[in-house]
Write a structure and sequence with these properties.
The protein is of the alpha/beta class and 360 residues long. The chain folds into two domains: 2-65, no CATH class; 74-353, Metallo-beta-lactamase, Chain A. Helix content is 27%, strand content 25%. It has nine helices and 18 strands. The strands form four sheets. A seven-stranded mixed beta sheet has the order 1-10-11-12-13-14-17, with helices on one face. A seven-stranded mixed beta sheet has the order 9-8-7-4-3-2-18, covered by helices on one side. Helix 1 (2-15) packs across helix 3 (39-65). Residues 1-6, 13-22, 31-41 and 47-73 have low confidence and may be disordered. The structure holds zinc ion (2 copies). One zinc ion binds next to loops. One zinc ion is lined by residues 157, 159, 222, 257.
């Protein structure tokens, strides 16, 4: 199973058609020296190992090539039950409640959305694969049973500091979860039945009463190329809220665990006017390798994605987070971006106003 998963990850990379060298390194590590094969042969070879997965990826790729680069197809529509308070829908204010790690309760336009649920306590360990673990050094602001009723969860990836065993046991298995295809498969195995996988740049729409929420998967790169295939796939996400007039009122971008990389530049090309951004920082380091943005990269990411307001998350919760928030604060000061950042401690809420006029 383990080998199959690794093959599937590599197949994902190969099917994206970008990274043949990673695949060769993978074969080399597996002790397979005869890797001088053409792409078609690689795909055939991989198909024998994990056919469905690759066929699905190929089908997606085919579908994608027919679409314009500017706009990917809308994959799915989720229709949520309307609240009784719908008549009083507030499109002009919203809030971000910071629970800890990358766990945030986002409320806007009648939606209550939870990101990356991590409710473990101080002193407990997360398992990050390959026998490695890290100890939590903070407390979540609330316990999982103190959560309000949720509409959906947006999950960046299946690392235990983003979806832990408490979340796996205690969350309602019928809650819709929007995430990347790899994490969606894992969630299915954990008993979650309403998972909505999205590939990078693909979107789905969620309808609740008079509001439409469009969620698009953003690129993210958790590790440098040589070890990328040892990590679970990650997605950032763009949440765009539309009111009754179908114009976008608010855009929220969450980075997911990512390093600064070229793919992030495409975000601003496709989505201008990002109102709010949750940046996963912390400079996670395992065996000397950087696996999430440190403070300096966080400030650079702000320049690249250009949100009107950024909130750092995922910066002090685990021992493997090596870049303290002060690194980010310093880089932000040096870049002259202080007026674009809001700092939240666990348990604090940021409330925001959304102007009446809509986006372009
Ligand atoms: Zn991670
Ligand atoms: Zn993380």
């Amino acid at each position: 199973m383990f080998v199959e998963e690794k093959v599937a990850n590599v197949a994902g990379i190969v099917c994206e058609g970008k990274d043949f060298s990673t695949f060769r390194l993978y074969l080399f590590l597996q002790g397979i020296r005869d890797y001088k094969v053409r792409d078609r042969q690689i795909i055939d070879w991989l198909t024998n190992y994990s056919g469905d997965y690759i066929q699905a990826r190929l089908a997606n790729r085919k579908g994608r090539s027919k679409m314009s680069n500017q706009k990917e197809k809308e994959l799915v529509e989720i229709v949520l039950p309307e609240d009784e308070s719908e008549g009083l829908l507030d499109m002009e204010h919203g809030s971000v409640y910071f629970i800890g790690t990358a766990t945030v309760l986002f409320r806007y336009a009648g939606f209550t959305i939870l990101t990356d649920p991590n409710f473990l306590h101080k002193g407990e360990k997360v398992h990050i694969g390959y026998g490695l673990s890290s100890t939590r050094v903070t407390e979540p602001a609330i316990d999982i049973d103190q959560l309000p009723p949720l509409d959906l969860i947006v999950l960046s990836h299946m690392h235990e500091d983003h979806f832990d065993r408490i979340a796996a046991h205690r969350l309602d298995k019928m809650l819709p979860i929007v995430t990347n295809p790899g994490a969606a498969d894992d969630l299915k195995k954990k008993g979650f039945s309403r998972t909505y996988p999205v590939n990078t740049w693909e979107s789905l729409t969620v309808i609740k009463g008079k509001t439409t929420l469009r969620i698009t998967a953003m690129p993210a790169k958790h590790a440098p190329v040589p070890v990328k295939f040892l990590m679970p796939p990650v997605m950032g996400s763009m949440l765009e809220f539309q009111g009754a007039s179908n114009s976008t009122r608010m855009r929220l971008y969450t980075s997911g665990d990512t390093l600064l990389c070229d793919q992030l530049r495409e975000i601003l090309r496709r989505f201008s006017d990002i109102d709010l951004s949750l940046l996963h920082l912390g400079g996670t380091k395992i065996m000397g390798m950087l696996l999430a943005m440190d403070g300096k990269q966080g400030a650079q990411a702000m320049r690249i994605v250009a949100p009107k307001t950024a909130i750092p998350v995922h910066f002090n919760d685990y021992k493997v987070f090596k870049s303290p928030l002060d690194d980010f604060k310093k880089a932000v000061r040096e870049a002259g971006l202080e007026n674009k950042v809001r700092y939240l401690n666990h348990g604090e809420t940021y409330t925001f106003d959304v102007p009446v006029e809509s986006h372009a």
